[in-house]
Amino acid sequence: MFGLLRSTRYGSRPLCSAVISLLVGVCIGLFVTISIVDTSKTNNFEKAKKSYHGAMARLAEKVHQLQQVQPFIDFPKGLKDSAENTPDNSVSEHLYENVRLLCWILTGAKNHQKKAIHVKATWGKRCNILLFVSSKEDSSLPTIAFRVPDTKTHLWGKTKEAFKFIYNNYSDKADWFFKADDDTFAIPENARYLLSRYNTSEPIYFGAKIKRSQSNSFASGGAGYILSKEALRRFATIALKNQSICDVKATEGKEDINIASCLNKVGVTLKDSRDEKGKERFLPFSPAFHTVPGTISDHWYYRNIYYKAHKGAECCSDTVISFHYVSPNEMYIYNYLLYQVRIHGTSPSIFPEHWTAPPPPDPEGKEPPWIGIRAERIKAKELEKKNTKKTSLMKDI
Fold first, then answer.
1. Do the beta carbons of residue 288 and residue 325 sit within 8 Å?
2. Rounded to 10 degrees, what is the CA torsion of 381, 387, 393, 397?
């Protein structure tokens, strides 16, 4: 090619013209070929686009026809987005009104703003009444202050004073009395679920049942324990007024063991608080301790828990009530996960016909029969109908 061009420079015009004609021809051929290919691609794309839109139009028409017969998607109640459907809290609201729970938190002056205030901001606000017991007054909580040192060895002194004060001032304002620490995280709704099947006039209390000896047991203080109204009355008016029954003068001692001894001597029974599957509801440690399998092979808890304890997913009840050794940060995390997070496409936990808690495993048959809220409502309605009939008959007479 370069030779041809050089010959062109020196006047070989016929050859130059031929080369130019060849180049022009090649360019025209390439242009035509590309144009044909591009046109073919364009035509194929247009055909595909028309086919796609046609298929979508037919699908839309089919959906429209189905919707004329029945709504295309009909979500069951409770599965719609929260903006469209408010969850049914009627059972929880009923229990709030009828199973009044007073929660009192054992704390100290150094922990008011470090721990106690976070209980108030999270689970504490779901109690019917929330009190904080300390050695120093603090209006931000507020606290009930007693002249007892803020040390672990003096928890017994605070506990005695707290229950006496609560009996004198709140016994008619609540039905059940829940003592917890400032690093306890609790779910009051589940506590009411358990308590709703029991009569508050019975001398009973609930908690994580720990073996002390063959004949004695106590409820772990860290996991919290709940006294009935009658248990509170016996403790405040009998046990704490008799030195032979209870160590009235002492302020030092293990609070959970001491109160168990006092309650036992005045006929108050520590009930089985497990669920119907035998899983624990009161847990003396954080969720990680109980739920992560294989983390701790040997621990006093597993050696001394009254009922056989499990690790991993089987450790705890689906209606768990409390955990202990929970940091303030964790309280907010648990509060968020429990009360705000919703799992899309799954239905919420359904309790059998909105009844109260079934009894725990009871081979000896000592547990009272399972009489739930639903059954009570039915009886109430039947009684109301009878009374209405009697009233109408009286009017006729």
1. no
2. -160
User: Locate tokens 């007024």: which residue?
Assistant: 241
pTM equals: 0.71
134, HSE (Cβ side, Cα atoms, 13 Å): 21
Give Cα 318 to chain centroid, integer Å. 9
CA dihedral (189, 194, 196, 201) in degrees, to 10, reads: -120
Q: What is the mean pLDDT of residues 98-127?
A: 96
Contact between residue 196 and residue 358 where contact means Cβ atoms under 8 Å apart: no
**Percent of the chain's residues with pLDDT above 70:** 67
- Exposure letters 133-167 (e unless 16+ CB within 10 A, then b): bbbeebeebebbebebeeeeebbbbbbbbbbbbbb
Distances in Å between the Cα of 120 and the Cα atoms of 73, 151, 183 are 42, 22, 12
Mean pLDDT, range 114-118, rounded to an integer: 96
Helix axes 373-396, 90-98, angle to 10 degrees: 80
**Left if phi > 0, otherwise alpha if psi is -120 to 50, otherwise beta: which for 348?**
beta
